[in-house]
Write a structure and sequence with these properties.
Oligomer: single chain
Number of helices: 2
Radius of gyration: 18 Å
Shape: rod-shaped
Structural class: mainly alpha
Largest sheet: none
Length: 70
């Protein structure tokens, strides 16, 4: 989960800086910035979902190993 949190923070920071640059100086075209924003959103959501699924799987395995589950 730490890796997913770090990745999410990094993506948010990069997107935030790009959004500020776009707001003040417009270094990117509108179409490119839209694609970049959607890509950041998708990568963030996918990494979070994968991290949550992995955490649940590992937690279930630990409970089975410790004989809390059959």
């Amino acid at each position: 989960m730490k890796i997913a949190a770090g990745l999410g923070i990094a993506i948010l920071l990069i997107w935030g800086l790009a959004a500020l640059a776009q707001l003040w100086w417009q270094p990117f075209g509108g179409e490119f910035f839209l694609k970049f924003s959607i890509s950041c959103l998708l990568v963030g959501v996918i990494s979070t979902v994968v991290a949550l699924i992995r955490r649940e799987y590992l937690d279930e395995q630990r409970q089975k190993r410790d004989k809390y589950l059959d």
